[in-house]
Amino acid sequence: MEILILYNYEITSAAIAATPTPELFEAAMVQVREASKSFTSLLLTLMHNAHWDITAAVRSIEAATASTDKYHNTSTTTSIVSAHHAKYALESYISRKIFQGFDHETFYMDGSLSSLLNPDQFRRDCFTQYRDMKSMDPTELLGILPSCHFGKFCSKKYLAIVHPKMEESLFGNLEQHSQVQAGNHPRTEFYNEFLGVAKTVWLLHLLAFSLNPAPSQFEASRGAEFHSQYMDSVVKFSGGRVPAGQVVGFPVSPGFKLGNGSVIKARVYLIART
């Protein structure tokens, strides 16, 4: 585990917690969701500006996320997502990509087993890195240490989320892709917005591996019955209650069970049972 020791950096935000707590993890998950929504909104705007067929893009996302799902009918050409709900399908895609590997101490970027070999020290190291990074601008951090573990994570996830054809369609070139593949981090509005998501997920991951016991991640499956104690619908219904007969169309973001017994609900897009 890399420990970032940041000297001469003045922390101007609120005091950082002295110890990792489930409440701190819950607050970090709120930040993940807000950053994800912001990046999704920017990406959707760029798609509209590039005259993408959003409905076709959503169908492609649905097919990719459900190709091995027993509840998904791969022969259908009709999207389960209404046109004005495309943002949820896009956010689901981004979340699935960026949370992949969350259960491993380095997102499977290497074969490290520090969390198993020396768990107490590893938990302390994770929280030290969390405290060091919490108030730092990710652009500043990567300007200092472009190839640190966080930098490698950003590169890996950007290339996973933003396909070359997508970038070329949105921007007319592959300049950002080329920079990332070369180990650099572009100073663009789009990449900066992506870094906002990457940082929040990285901090959440550090907190997860700081806690004892670690949070248990879960995700709602397509076709699963809606359970209010574990799921939260991204689409709000009249009266604030989910009507009977609703099932999961697709998961939007994962949920977590915490050591203190509390639950961070998985966010889901619901559809009527057919």
Structural summary, described in words:
47% of the residues lie in helices and 9% in strands. The strands form two sheets. It has a three-stranded antiparallel β-sheet, with no helix packed on it. The chain has a three-stranded mixed β-sheet with strand order 2-6-3. The model is unreliable at 1-14 and 70-77 (pLDDT under 50). With 274 residues, the chain is mainly alpha-helical. It has one domain (22-214). It has ten helices and six strands. 31% of the residues are buried. This is GIL1/IRKI C-terminal domain-containing protein. It comes from Sphenostylis stenocarpa. Residues 218-269 form the GIL1/IRKI C-terminal domain. Pfam families: GIL1_IRKI_C.
Shape: globular
Biggest sheet, open or closed, and with what strands and sense? 3 strands, antiparallel
Number of helices: 10
Strand order of the largest sheet: 1-4-5
Strand content: 5-15%
Structural class: mainly alpha
Number of domains: 1
The pLDDT mean sits at 89
First-last Cα distance: 48 Å
Residue share in helix: 40-55%
Q: Give me the Rg, rounded.
A: 19 Å
Order of helices and strands: HHHHHHHHHHEEEEEE
Poorly predicted segments: 1-14, 70-77
How many strands in all? Answer: 6
